[in-house]
Amino acid sequence: MITVLRIGHRPARDKRITTHVALTARAFGASAIIIDLHDEELEGTVRSVTDRFGGSFHVSSGVNWRKFLDENKGTRVHLTMYGIPVGQCIDKIREDSSRNGELVIVVGAEKVPGDLYGIADYNVSVTNQPHSEVAALAIFLDRYNNGSELSATFQGRMEVVPRERGKEIRNRIGNTITNKKPKRKD
Hints:
By secondary structure, this protein is of the alpha/beta class. Helix content is 37%, strand content 26%. It has 6 helices and 9 strands; from the N terminus they run βαβαβαβαβαβαβββ. The strands form 2 sheets. A 6-stranded parallel sheet has the order 3-2-1-5-4-6. A 3-stranded antiparallel sheet has the order 7-8-9, with no helix packed on it. Helix 1 (11-27) packs parallel to helix 2 and helix 1 runs parallel beside helix 6 (133-144). The longest helix is centred in the N-terminal third of the chain and has 17 residues, at 11-27. It is globular, with a radius of gyration of 18 Å. The N and C termini lie far apart (48 Å).
């Protein structure tokens, strides 16, 4: 089981980026996201995507991150540009988390409390340069899962159909599949 823990979420400022962290976690193989500050709207958005596109992804907010980490016995990974490069530690992380059955990935929204570096089992960087936590999470999960998440199926009511050009979404209603194609602009 993989859980992403988002700390430092500021609803007025981070709503879109935290939503992207959640959707990336879902698409790249995590089972859940826990967000420290309560945000019903964010929870609703993520649940709506999961309802439409499938999977069993769980979202909850308003959770004390320290208490969550104290009570969780999984392998704790903090994604930070100050950490050990992902390529140097991913095998050990995979080994540790398979032994205890759970992986918790901590992603900060703002400057994280300094003691998080000591609480984490691993402080991991996806480059030692400033960049997006969404990108760091996606790359970390891709490396952790050896790319298997890229071919995962979710069996939702809606399904994006890969196409060379254009867009197609299958909307499943009962056993009927309806193709929706965007209208062509003339």
